[in-house]
Design brief:
- Strand 4, helix 7 and strand 5 form a beta-alpha-beta unit.
- 33% of the residues are buried.
- The longest helix is centred in the middle third of the chain and has 36 residues.
- This protein is α/β, with parallel strands linked by helices.
- The protein contains 19 helices and 9 strands.
- Helix content is 54%, strand content 9%.
- It has 3 domains: 124 residues, no CATH class; 108 residues, 3-Layer(aba) Sandwich (Rossmann fold); 218 residues, no CATH class.
Length: 490
């Protein structure tokens, strides 16, 4: 079995902690028989390694979709090392006891001297292993459905998962080929020849991605393959694992009926609510002076209210009033349609609003929505009430995203960004359902870390948020949504 996406994380984290801890121990030589020394030594090791790992994470060094080879890793390493050095210097300057003798700069350099000799050989070995085809799993895909070709795309985009496609079994129920990929992978024959195909190819894994399973699933052949040690997987689950989103077009009601992942315990929901309330309370106390300053700046910069309030759909579709800082000039009477849909809407964004959006400070008043019980810290973004009916009619399982409270940030926001079309809304729906299915405190923490990353560093190729999803009249949004051609029908 080949290294997975978690290999660089797990190996490097362990080795980094050991190396950093060993370096600090060699320089400070604390007596580990004294409890206070153990606490200081543990804190020194944890925070020193944490800032290095955080800088690597924010530089995408743990994303093998982006850093696909050792050369790209070397190219990105100086920037991430510089970020780590600055973070460590700042930390040691604020907390001198956490550093070693010599001050913040020497302490940071000493950490860098042990990090690089650890990271470089680990990554070199990792990328060498990724290029050894004999370590890959031979994968046979059953079906030529759109889901099958999406899985092919994801396997191509994630070579680190260790899969080599040996072919596809033709599905008579599928709607033809999918782009140029149909010529890149051999068609091994029809589904009726599956037993012969398995004897010929002897794959390590079979991925079932048929267009229609009823009456066509080769149960006996798959059962024999499973008993022979071949892994048999559902294409929906493979796609979910590779993309971290749900293929909503391929889901069946039975998949949702019998999945326990969409049911959360009362304790989990109560804990989630308590964390959101605590965070919102602290957030309001810490940002209150900033909110006053922002409100005054908005009033000085442009006419109109400092706040933008809009009806949104919350938990179980209940309507609530979403509060944000206003970032656009108010529409002139009688020009609502033209101003929103037929002009460059960026012209309506105020000077202050441009910076508020860039830094996501326009979302800060939503701490009040959390305190009122309308929202949680993390969750699907609340949709405008006027859009909900249309979305439910045209996007499969759309109502499921409202089984949890909406959030200030969410998995769809950090993975896809703003919605500027119906296609974007559908794509974000895939991520929203994945979040609802896998919701957990650790998942929320990951989303919050990614949110901070986007706020500080931006998003590559991020789409500009349109007025349709920000501050346009809801009655116009519904009509516009209807006129957009859907890429995925129910």
């Amino acid at each position: 079995m080949r290294p997975t996406i978690f290999t660089p994380v797990t190996i490097e984290v362990v080795l980094l902690f050991l190396a950093v801890g060993g370096s600090i121990f060699a320089q400070t030589q604390p007596s580990l028989f004294v409890w206070s020394n153990v606490v200081v030594f543990g804190s020194q090791t944890f925070f020193s390694a944490f800032f290095v790992i955080l800088s690597f994470y924010y530089s995408d060094l743990y994303d093998l979709r982006i850093v696909r080879n050792f050369s790209e890793f070397i190219t990105r390493l100086p920037r991430s090392s510089g970020i780590a050095f600055v973070l460590l210097c700042g930390f040691y300057a604020l907390y001198p006891l956490m550093g070693v003798a010599g001050g913040p700069i020497f302490s940071s350099l000493s950490i860098a001297c042990v990090v690089l000799p650890v990271v470089l050989p680990v990554r070199w070995v990792l990328y060498r292993l990724l290029n050894i085809r004999s370590l890959t799993e031979r994968v046979l895909i059953l079906g030529t459905s759109p889901l099958a070709w999406k899985i092919v795309e994801e396997i191509e985009a994630t070579p680190h998962v260790g899969y080599t496609i040996v072919g596809l079994v033709e599905d008579q129920g599928a709607s033809g080929s999918y782009g140029s990929q149909s010529s890149q992978y051999p068609m091994r024959g029809p589904l009726e020849r599956l037993n012969d195909i398995l004897n010929e190819l002897r794959p390590d894994r079979i991925i079932v991605a048929l267009t229609e399973r009823r009456g066509r699933l080769p149960v006996r052949d798959l059962l024999d393959a499973r008993m022979a040690g071949i892994i048999v997987e559902d294409g929906i689950e493979v796609h979910e694992r590779l993309t971290e989103k749900l293929a909503i077009e391929s889901l069946t009601p039975s998949f949702l009926f019998f999945s326990e992942d969409f049911t959360k315990s009362r304790f989990q929901m109560a804990l989630r609510r308590m964390v959101s309330l605590a965070f919102a309370l602290v957030g309001i106390l810490l940002t209150f002076p900033l909110m006053v300053l922002i409100a005054l700046t908005i009033k000085i910069d442009s006419s109109g209210s400092a706040f933008f309030i809009q009806d949104r759909a919350g938990l179980h579709g209940r309507t609530f009033r979403l509060i944000k800082f206003r970032t656009m000039h108010p529409l002139q009477p009688g020009k609502e349609y033209e101003e929103v849909w037929e002009r460059d809407v960026s012209s309506r964004v105020t000077r202050v609003g441009k910076w508020l959006r860039k830094l996501r400070l326009d979302e800060v008043p939503q701490f009040i929505n959390i305190m009122r019980g309308d929202m949680d810290l993390v969750g699907p973004r609340p949709e405008m009430v006027s859009n909900v009916k249309t979305m439910i009619e045209q996007i499969p399982y759309y109502s499921l995203r409202m089984v949890v409270r909406p959030g200030i940030t969410g998995w769809a926001q950090v993975r896809h960004g703003y919605s500027v079309s119906q296609e974007d809304v559908t794509e974000k729906m895939r991520y929203d359902l994945y979040y609802v299915k896998h919701m957990s405190p650790w998942f929320d923490l990951r989303i919050l870390i990614d949110t901070v990353k986007i706020v500080l560093l931006g998003r590559d190729g991020e789409k500009k948020e349109s007025a349709e999803t920000k501050e346009s009249p809801s009655k116009l949004t519904t009509s516009a949504v209807v006129n957009v051609t859907l890429t995925n029908q129910r």
